[in-house]
Design a protein that fits this description.
heterotrimer; A mainly alpha; B mainly alpha; C alpha/beta; A: mainly alpha; MetI-like fold; two-stranded antiparallel ribbon; 11 helices; globular; C: alpha/beta; 5-stranded antiparallel sheet
Chain lengths: ~280, ~280, ~270
């Protein structure tokens, strides 16, 4: 067999693996969509769950939105600040390497471990109870390292020339960061925050342990209220419901969750593609 | 100048926050879990909260088996995919696949688990027998969850190989594939090994999707075939924390599992960053 | 007119020229200046006097330290953590490396233009206004005027006056570089440092920038780093030749090119290395 045939065979193999990878997402989306679309109704979207598998999922939708928004409100500023330090100030020494290592470690921390920690530290030790606040803070522990990583990459992609030009005009480092570096990096940073929101939205284990059981019939009224989430709702109905009614509701909730998740993720990618195009000609 | 110093100190505190959280995690897990951590816990064969027996050996083994299979599948698909992405793909296609992969990282695991529950489990039950909830189902679901991590981390490793290597090889008359095979992949191999190790870490920590398909028998046993039901570390915590009485040995044992998970992940991270990737740690 | 013959008019011009250069006062003075990056001794015992309101060019093979020399004047090397210095650099009477120097004030006094045009990804107007705003020098009408004045000085106003709100990245490479010059001029510096400003530009854009430099010397002290011998010969009044961190020869451009004192300089000018 000559080299060219061999190369073509290998290319075909590579393509096959790519096809499998690309297909996973559409298969799941179509599967959920076709099974879930029939359940979607005004009552389902605006009603409250009752008797386990009946009613709607309004409190869960709102709960998920609250959790995710509060999570990024708490985590994003901290993540961006950390990224600025790591990209612009951090000296190359043991302390910085340690900080980097533990940031990576936190990124790899199993969500159930973060959930356990949230349960022990926030819910019991700080007495936040099983609540919106405990859930959102725990989620922000989970997304923080991802925000840091995305923001640091975005900051490092800002051409050095911008910084030099600003400094040479007599701007301080801090002015340069605020007025030049951050605006130039902002699309990348926003993409990172949005992808983090997507992750938080799809997270189950953390909210299970820290924010609520999932079947809450009420929209959370305060930071201390137990808060339901779509993911917990889906989990409960899929694993503990045994009727077709509960399965179809699990599909309906999955569809709503996927639509929300895709909206966040796709807007993240749109922001970034815009960014890449803008940097393109340089 | 002074203001810059203050800014840098405040930012340093922000950056240290992640480190602080990691330390708080281990302190608070140990606070609850340390009393349950002993040889009998790690090596014990029986997990039965009713009888006050907390041995996680079968669960550890179950985790190992499920993760190993899933990583093999994910590597078999993910590494070729990464090679294609980094070396053969036109720009628009690469952009598209990368985007898909990035979205896939965040797809709610509970939805993947649901997919496993409704599609994969009945398929296994009807075609291969058994209850369907099985190691095999765990492999498939966890492979789907691990795939995006493996792809993006190995693609980074491949793209980190300097272009000059490729040019040198092509200039000697090598074909594209020969270049990739003999010049690029060997240079990327340490990075790819690190990618796989990190992928193992993520897979060990995955909870929901696995939990929904592996069966979680009441008292786990040492698996004997791929259709056996198993327990994994994460699912044990998730399922039992709500009915473990606060302050009971059962609760301590669950936190001790958390400690075990913590150290597995830290160890894998250490291996990936300091042993395998040490030489480009600063890069 | 015969090329080799010197006419009375030209002789007159030469005398003027000589007087203009010799009569100029010192603006930037290096005294036994050394600079290290870590263990790397980049600038060695530099002592030169750069004169006011003329164009001085620094030439030499790449890696000879000419960019570092330039960046030593406005302390842009400070950004590099392992950078150390000894000796002094004076601007007028002020030692740039004295303890109490405000580097931001210093960099305002000294404008800098870089090798690759580096306008910010903002509008043309905001680019020029950036430094003015940073230093709180003007706002409102005054700012508009400052922007216009700077763009006119950089010979760019006619080309961009109707597109001040467009992104600076839509300009051509040559326009971008003149925008960077306008941006530097807007903070009213005394000295303009140019680090190979034309190396990324085409010949027409280069010619425009060179004409611009000539017009700028009336108001500013211009120091130009260049890799291009012809450019140094064309535009500068005085030239320094640097080699491995040392200033080998420094004098009037005409003298340096026509009969260099050092063999090394001659070898470089005649293209024996580079």
């Amino acid at each position: 067999m000559d080299e060219l045939t061999k190369e073509n065979i290998i290319k075909a193999g590579l393509c096959a693996s790519v096809v499998i990878t690309i297909l996973i997402l559409p298969v799941i989306v179509v599967w959920v969509g076709s099974n879930g679309i029939g359940v979607i109704s005004w009552e389902f979207l605006t009603g409250r769950p009752y008797r386990f598998e009946l009613g709607g999922i309004f409190p869960q939708i709102v709960g998920s939105i609250y959790l995710v928004s509060l999570c990024s409100l708490l985590g994003a500023p901290l993540g961006v600040a950390s990224a600025i330090y790591l990209a612009e100030y951090a000296p190359n020494n043991v302390i910085t390497q340690t900080v980097r290592f533990f940031t990576e470690t936190l990124a790899g921390m199993p969500s159930i471990v973060i959930g356990l920690f949230g349960l022990e530290f926030l819910v019991y030790y700080l007495q936040l109870k099983t609540s919106l606040l405990a859930g959102a803070v725990s989620l922000s522990f989970m997304t923080l390292p991802w925000t840091i990583r995305a923001s640091e990459e975005a900051i490092k992609m800002v051409p050095r020339g911008y910084r030099d030009a600003s400094l040479a005009l007599g701007a301080t480092k801090w002015q340069t960061i605020l007025k030049i570096v951050l605006p130039a990096a902002s699309p990348g940073i926003i993409t990172g925050i949005l992808l983090g929101m997507g992750k938080a939205m799809g997270e189950t284990a953390v909210v299970w342990l820290t924010s609520g059981s999932g079947l809450e019939a009420f929209v959370p009224r305060s930071l201390r209220s137990p808060t339901g989430s779509l993911t917990m709702y889906i989990y409960l109905l899929a694993t503990q419901g045994h009727t077709s009614e509960s399965m179809s509701r699990a599909f309906g909730a999955s569809l709503v969750l996927l639509v929300m998740f895709m909206a966040v993720s796709v807007s993240a990618l749109i922001v970034r593609n815009y960014y890449l195009r803008r940097l393109g000609p340089r | 100048m002074k203001r810059g110093d203050i800014a840098s100190k405040i930012l340093f505190l922000c950056a240290s926050f992640s480190t602080l959280i990691v330390f708080l995690i281990i302190i608070f897990l140990l606070r609850e879990g340390i009393s349950a951590l002993n040889w009998n816990f790690l090596m014990g064969m029986v997990w039965s909260p009713h009888k006050n027996l907390y041995g996680i050996f079968p669960t550890l083994l179950g985790t190992l088996v499920v993760v190993a299979g899933a990583i093999i599948i994910a590597t078999a698909i993910g590494v070729p995919c990464a090679v294609f992405l980094a070396e053969f793909s036109p720009f628009w296609l690469r952009n598209m696949i990368k985007s898909t992969v990035e979205v896939l990282v965040g797809v709610p695991s509970v939805v993947i688990g649901f997919f496993g529950l409704i599609v994969i489990i009945p398929f296994i039950r009807n075609n291969l027998g058994g209850r369907g909830e099985s190691i095999l189902a765990g492999w498939i679901v966890l492979a789907i969850m691990s795939l995006p991590h493996i792809i993006s981390l190995s693609e980074d490793a491949i793209r980190a190989v300097p272009t000059s290597y490729r040019q040198a090889s092509l200039a000697l008359g090598a074909t594209k594939w020969q270049t990739v095979r003999r010049a690029v992949l060997p240079s990327a191999s340490s990075g790819m090994r690190a990618a796989i190790v990190l992928g193992v870490g993520r897979a060990v920590g995955e909870t929901m999707a696995v939990l929904m398909v592996v069966g979680n028998p009441e008292t786990p046993w040492i698996p004997t075939g791929v259709l056996d039901r198993v327990r994994v570390l994460t699912s044990t915590i998730a399922i039992e924390f709500s009915y473990a009485e606060w302050g009971s040995p059962h609760q301590y044992a669950l936190f001790a599992i958390g400690v075990v998970l913590f150290f597995i992940v830290v160890a894998l991270n250490l291996v990936a960053t300091f042993v395998i990737r040490r030489r480009n740690w600063n890069g | 007119m015969n090329g080799n013959e010197i006419t009375p008019g030209q002789a007159m011009q030469d005398v003027f020229e000589e007087f203009r250069i010799d009569g100029a006062v010192n603006k930037v003075v290096f005294r036994d200046f050394n600079l290290w990056y870590g263990e790397n001794h980049v600038l060695k015992d530099i002592s030169v006097e750069i004169k006011s309101n003329i164009i001085t060019s620094i030439m030499g093979p790449s890696g000879c330290g000419k960019s570092t020399f330039l960046r030593a004047i406005d302390r842009m090397n400070d950004i590099i953590p392992e950078c150390r210095t000894s000796g002094q650099v004076f601007i007028d009477e002020d030692n740039v490396y004295a303890e109490d120097v405000d580097v931001y004030e210093l960099r305002k006094r000294v404008g800098m233009v870089f090798q690759k045009p580096n306008p910010f990804p903002q509008s043309v107007y905001d680019n020029v206004a950036y430094g003015v705003r940073i230093h709180g020098m003007a706002n409102g009408r005054e700012l508009d005027e400052a922007v216009e004045r700077s763009l006119r000085m950089a010979a760019l106003w006619d080309e961009v006056s109707d597109r001040l709100d467009e992104s600076a990245l839509t300009l051509s490479g040559g326009q971008q570089q003149r925008l960077c010059i306008a941006r530097a001029l807007a903070v009213e510096p005394e000295i303009l440092l140019m680090d190979e400003p034309c190396s990324a530009l085409d010949p027409i854009a280069t010619a425009k920038i060179e004409t611009l430099m000539r017009s700028l010397q009336e108001k500013y002290t211009v120091v130009l780093v260049t890799h291009n011998l012809q450019q140094a010969a064309r535009v500068s009044d005085m030239t320094a030749f640097m080699y491995i961190g040392e200033v080998v020869e420094f004098g009037r451009t005409k003298d340096l090119f026509e009969n260099p004192e050092k063999e090394l300089t001659e070898n470089y000018i005649t293209g024996k290395f580079g």
